[in-house]
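Fill in residues.
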């Protein structure tokens, strides 16, 4: 009876010692392990708003837009991630701008929207460059949508990117009859528009040339010893020698004899 009691006590003591040893080893392993931290996810509508500390600010310090040379060294995965970061930022800025307009408040730093849009445009440019390089290497073509020089309804030439239609051009009578048979280009209204439009463009060029000519005369009047090579390079459409002989180019100074 005493021998069985001794065996029971010995077994219990051994199990307690083993449990204590395992607990100590586990605690040592845990103490040597570094905890892993992650950013808290927010999957609610508050992601469309700026952080609360910027709600009452009038000037928010931001950086510049992403440049092309900085984006060209990034991988496609990084560009894809950056695109969605900028997309969320743009949606947030649009929401804050609308909220400020509703509350008749000044939207701080509205140039942030332009910087985000410039960055997104640069990403599209880099991705298009890579697509063109890939298609030229594989197929010898750019892979871009083909474009043609066409004449629009106003008689002006423009670049038109081709796309698929469910009806061919010669079957679509609603387009063929007014555009090809009767011809928007040969109509009286289009001819009158083109005449007035060309006259307007000609007047803009003429007025710009006259402004430069008068400005050169004033420069020659104020600075008679100005460098003519620099003036010619700055205003190539102005006859400098003719401007020097005009009365407006004469300065109020006495010549030295």
């Amino acid at each position: 009876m005493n021998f069985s009691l001794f065996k029971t006590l010995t077994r219990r003591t051994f199990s307690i010692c083993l449990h204590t040893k395992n607990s100590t080893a586990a605690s040592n392993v845990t103490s040597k392990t570094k905890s892993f931290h992650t950013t808290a996810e927010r999957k609610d509508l508050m992601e469309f708003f700026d952080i609360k500390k910027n709600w009452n600010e009038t000037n928010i310090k931001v950086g510049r837009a992403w440049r092309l040379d900085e984006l060209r060294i990034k991988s496609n995965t990084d560009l894809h991630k950056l695109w969605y970061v900028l997309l969320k930022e743009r949606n947030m800025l649009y929401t804050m701008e609308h909220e400020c307009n509703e509350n008749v408040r000044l939207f701080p730093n509205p140039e942030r929207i332009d910087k985000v849009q410039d960055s997104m445009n640069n990403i599209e440019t880099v991705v298009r460059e890579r697509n063109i390089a890939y298609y030229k290497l594989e197929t010898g073509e750019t892979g871009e949508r083909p474009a043609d020089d066409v004449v629009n309804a106003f008689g002006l030439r423009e670049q038109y990117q081709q796309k698929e239609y469910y009806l061919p051009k010669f079957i679509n009578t609603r387009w063929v009859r007014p555009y090809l048979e009767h011809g928007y280009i040969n109509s009286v209204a289009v001819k009158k528009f083109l005449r007035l439009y060309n006259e307007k463009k000609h007047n803009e060029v003429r007025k710009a040339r006259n402004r430069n000519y008068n400005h050169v005369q004033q420069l020659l009047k104020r600075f008679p010893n100005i460098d003519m090579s620099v003036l010619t390079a700055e205003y190539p459409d102005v006859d400098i020698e003719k401007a020097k002989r005009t009365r407006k180019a004469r300065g109020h100074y006495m010549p030295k004899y």
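The first strand starts at residue 147 and ends at 151.
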